[in-house]
Each structure stands twice: as structure tokens, then as C-alpha cells.
Amino acid sequence: MTVSLVWLRDDLRVADNPALTAALSSGDRTAILYVLDDESPEVRPIGAASRWWLHHSLLELQRTIAGLGGTLILRRGAARTVVPGVVAEVGATSVHWNRRYGTAREIDVELKKSLPDAHSHTGSLLHDPWRVTTGSGTPFKVFTPFWKSILAGPEPRLPFPAPTSIPGVTVPSDDLESWGLLPSRSWTDEFSSVWTPGEAGAQNRLARFLDAGLALYHRRDEPGIESTSGLSPHLRFGEISPYQVWHAVRPAVTPENRANADRFLSEIGWREFAYHQMFVNPDFHIRNLRPEFDDFPWQQPRADHLTAWRKGQTGISLVDAGMRELQRVGVMHNRVRMVAASFLIKNLGIDWRIGEAWFWDMLVDADEASNPASWQWVAGSGYDAAPYFRVFNPELQAAKFDPDNAYRARWIEEFNTPLYPEPIVSLAETRARALADYATMRAERPPT
Ligand SMILES: Cc1cc2nc3c(=O)[nH]c(=O)nc-3n(C[C@H](O)[C@H](O)[C@H](O)COP(=O)(O)OP(=O)(O)OC[C@H]3O[C@@H](n4cnc5c(N)ncnc54)[C@H](O)[C@@H]3O)c2cc1C
């Protein structure tokens, strides 16, 4: 009897899982392993909201795999030690995983050399970053030509079907509860009213979006209506793959919704673009992609300002509604993320990395590529970024995208009452200060 091992990471699904499919065809029995690695310095420790999601996603995956006859083996520790240990324990003669693209990739490169018959597969991105380059072979730094070059290439492969059975291997596994992933505070109570982590939840979201959201996607900037997919945490944890999304959207295209479908798929493209940026800049959650921003004269963060921002008490209603949505359900509408991030960076003068770290802790879709890429986009320090001098005016944004107050009234209980706080800063004065700071940076260190 031969045993193969599949090591799951950000791909918590059985359908369209190339590593699982390959493992099933290369051994009589397949051991399925998930390692909670909070020891390796190359792995960015996940935030509190993501830990909530991970707990529920693993629970769901355990059930799915058990229903197919297999077992999900849970272990905790440094992957460099744990994975070879389990390979020896189950007697695996081949090992499979789907690639990751951040610093943790260093661990995979090492293990690939030392483990028997180890194979990495492309499962989380439509294209490995080294396959999409400019004509001169360098990584793209601008989204439009990046996406055009992808669209000019062949269609992404079809998704692999889910296995019908998984002949498993029984070895000891940690008890998921013992990992203590759920927060002790009750702040995640409302999460489960909105989210169903796991593969089935992801497929339901996609079906709901194709049914109702896609036709409204041209209104994706309006936070008060449900016109976007809500797929981001499912994509983040790999409960659904971009191939499954792509091949579900394509047949749903009609002459009426074509523009919406193209736009939606281009957002999947932004996700890819973020990963391609991370592949060449694995430390970009702490490093400005534009070095001139290293000299930016950030303000010393005022504790009261930071607290007001985090709690949604700034007196700027669109920012506050977004920050309260984040607290209560672990996400924030994309347009509002841009406005809330711009307010922190530009109106409060606080280094984008402080905001990035807060989102990393609080978002259920906190993504090691999309979060830093988006923060750097707003700050102006990233690739193809909004120029720093574009300072969102949150009041104008609210009037334009939440004209009937639906979004703000939903998240701010005391909205439009005397209990709602006064603005903590003047938008006009802080905008002027932000532009002056930017001019100082440019004078000291012109862009290269
Ligand atoms: C400051 C800031 C921080 C962000 N942090 C994250 C993050 O940690 N994780 C994350 O997934 N997205 C992040 N985004 C991007 C975006 O806000 C979310 O992907 C989107 O709100 C998710 O909602 P949806 O699934 O309904 O999106 P849809 O509009 O339905 O888009 C479909 C999918 O495309 C991807 N996508 C959409 N927009 C973007 C984008 N701008 N960049 C990268 N991928 C995108 C997501 O995977 C999303 O699920 C951030 C944006 C900003 C401005």
C-alpha cells in the first residue's frame, strides 16, 4: 500500500484542489495535513478575525473530508519540523501542496528539496507570477497592461471536480478546540449572522452573486446595496478557487451583463496583481514600494485619534460607518475601505502601516497580498497607486455613494442625532497639511 500526503494551507477545499487531486492519484491512501504554524518567522501570524474564520473553516473541512472517508490531520508547530515528521509517521512516498507566494515560500523551497517526491501545484492564482511578465521579462507595475496580457493569453484551465472518496490514513490529530482560535471576547458574535465559512458557504455566495449581484455590479461603489460578491474571505482561505469563480461567471455572461462580468473578473485580476507584487516584494506590508516615501514626514500618531478611528468615533460619518462595520462583521465595503484608509493616512497623517496592521487583525478577509497592496495604493507608495495628492473627501464620497444614508444609518446607531460626535479634525485643514507634507517629501527626495 502506498501513501501520499497533501499539505493544505490557504486552500481549504476539496473541489478544484490540484494538490489533493494529484495526491489521490499517486497513492492508495492519502493523508491530509493542516499545520498551524505560528512559530516560523516567515509566516505572518494571522489576525484575530482570521483566526475565527480559520476555526470554522477547518471544522467544515473536517466534516467534508470525513464524509468522503478521509481524515484531516491537524498539527501545530514549525512546518519545517512538523511536515517531515508526519511524512515519516504515515510513510508517505509522495507529498503535494498548492503554492504560496509570500515569505513562507522559503519554507516550501527548503522542504521540496528534502522531502521524498515533493510536488507543488498552482491552485490559488490563475497564473504563477513568474509566468506573467512584460515584454522585457520584468514584473508588471501597472495593472491595465498586466490584465490585458492575461486576457490575451489562453483561458484559465477548467476546475478539477471534487473527489468522490478519500481513502484516508489514521494518525493522531490535534483537537481543533485546543488551538484556541476563537477570541475570548464576544466581538465576533455577529460574524456568523453574515458568514458561513467553508466550501459550501463559498459556493452559496457565488450562486447568490450570479443570481442577483452581477446585474447590479455597476453599482459596486454604493455601500448601501448588496451588489458585490462577498467572496473575499472565501478566496482568502481558498474555500473557492479563482478558476471556479472564472468558469462560473463566463457562462452567466449575457449581452446585458457583459460589462459587469468583465469588471468583476478584473477585480479577480486585482487580486492576482497584488499577489504578483508580493512575489517580488515579500516584505511589502512593512516596506514602501516607492522608496521616496521612506522620507515621508508622518505625524506622531495621537492615541486619541487612533482610538477614534479604530472605534468609528471620528465624527466623519462614512469613515465611522465603515470602521463599525469592520468591528461587527469583519469586513468593510471596498469604497469605504478606501475612504477610511485615506482619512487615517492623509487627514490624520498616520503611517499607512499602522492602518494595515489594524485591518490585518480585524478583517476576516485579511490577505497578505491584497491588504498591503491596497494600503500602499491609497497611500500612493505602491505600484499603480492613487497619487498621494488625491485626498478623498469623505463627505463628498458619502453624498455621492450613500446619498440616502442607507449605509451610514445601518452601522451608526446614533446617526443624525445629537449623540453623534463632532469631527475630530477639520477636513480642509488636514488636507492642506497632507499636501504640504507631500511637497516636503518631494523636495527632499524626488521620485526615482
Ligand atoms: C485599504 C484596503 C484594504 C484591503 N484589504 C483587503 C484584504 O485584506 N483582503 C482582500 O481580499 N481585499 C482587500 N481589499 C480589497 C477589497 O476591498 C476587497 O477585496 C473587497 O471589498 C471584497 O469584497 P467582495 O468580495 O464583495 O468584492 P467583489 O467586488 O465581489 O470582488 C471579487 C473579488 O475580487 C477581489 N478583489 C476585489 N477588489 C480587489 C482589490 N482592490 N484588490 C485585490 N483584490 C480585490 C477579492 O478577492 C474579491 O472577493 C482592500 C481594499 C482597501 C482599499
State the low-pLDDT regions, or none. Answer: none
Rg from C-alpha positions? 23 Å
CATH architecture name of the largest domain: Orthogonal Bundle
H/E topology pattern: EHEHEHEHEHHHHHHHHHHHHHH
Q: Any ligands, ions or cofactors bound here, and which? A: flavin-adenine dinucleotide
What count of domains describes the coordinates? 3
C-alpha geometry: globular
Determine the mean pLDDT.
96
The proportion of strand residues reads 5-15%
What is the CATH homology-level superfamily of the largest domain?
DNA Cyclobutane Dipyrimidine Photolyase, subunit A, domain 3
Number of helices: 18
CATH topology of the largest domain: the name is: DNA Cyclobutane Dipyrimidine Photolyase, subunit A, domain 3
How is the main sheet built? Answer: 5 strands, parallel
